[in-house]
Write a structure and sequence with these properties.
Length: 259
């Protein structure tokens, strides 16, 4: 192998060394690009799943509580003969319900785990019961039956609302847990890539030093021999030994010295 290398033209040896360095640098670059894309894709997925989900949960939970308070205000003001105010509270309740529904649907558009799906199914059941009770409360409020409406809120809706709050808390906790797990996986991937890249860089540096050493020695050793021979010839000593088994440019020059 070494003899084959020494028989190459000097320019070919240099180009071979440069080519090998380019290949090593390219592989390292591809590894870096692949790793960065992989980590970026993972974080993008985490954002669309965990971050978007958390945002949807927060908006749904906040507007659900606003809807409950607005419903209380509707009942408290139902005895007043102010149709505009009653209509205002009814519209606000409808608005908050719409925001809750939109964000719950937005949450469902993410990649759901089996645990999330179970919680969402239970949440749908609770919401169905809650909406039926809510419609009944609004009906009683418009009929100025505030006591019956308040009793329905305290005795029936409170427990259902607690189930809904618990479901939101579970979804929030699941997404926090998945987000932490994703960060751990990305950290592990980054560590593996860092170790792999460091090893490959060391191999590349070692290969570069080895190739540089071979090229340097393949040129300097014959040149040194010819310098010694030239010094002897300069003082009239024709007994010079510049034998070479290389067929490159320097080898051919050394053969000329032998003649």
């Amino acid at each position: 192998m070494k003899k084959w290398f020494y028989n190459l033209k000097i320019s070919s040896r240099i180009m071979l060394g440069i080519t090998i360095m380019i290949i090593i640098a390219t592989i390292i670059g591809i590894m870096g690009i692949f790793s960065m894309q992989n980590i970026n894709a993972t974080y993008t997925l985490m954002y669309h799943n965990e971050m978007v989900s958390l945002e949807s949960i927060e908006k749904a939970a906040v507007n659900f509580q606003r809807g409950r308070k607005t419903l209380d205000s509707l009942v408290l003001n139902s005895l007043n003969d102010d149709k505009e105010k009653v209509e205002y509270f009814l519209q606000r309740v409808t608005y908050y319900n719409t925001v809750v529904n939109e964000n719950c649907e937005k949450y469902r558009q993410t990649d759901l785990t089996s645990d999330e799906q179970v919680v969402l199914d239970n949440l749908d059941i609770s919401f169905k019961v809650y909406r039926e009770l809510e419609n009944r409360v609004k009906e009683l409020a418009t009929k100025k039956q505030a006591d019956e409406a308040q009793t329905l809120i305290e005795n029936n809706m409170r427990e259902v609302a607690l189930n809904i709050d618990t479901a939101f808390d579970k979804l929030y906790a699941l997404n926090i847990e998945m987000g932490n797990e994703c960060v751990k996986q990305n950290t592990a991937t980054t560590n593996i890539f860092t170790i792999s890249l460091s090893i490959f860089i060391l191999i590349g540096v070692g290969a570069a030093l080895r190739i540089g050493f071979l090229i340097s020695r393949s040129i300097s050793n014959p040149v040194n021999k010819m310098m010694v021979a030239a010094d002897k010839l300069a003082v009239g000593d024709i007994n010079v030994d510049v034998q070479s088994d290389s067929t490159d440019e320097i080898g051919l020059l050394m053969h000329s010295f032998e003649k």
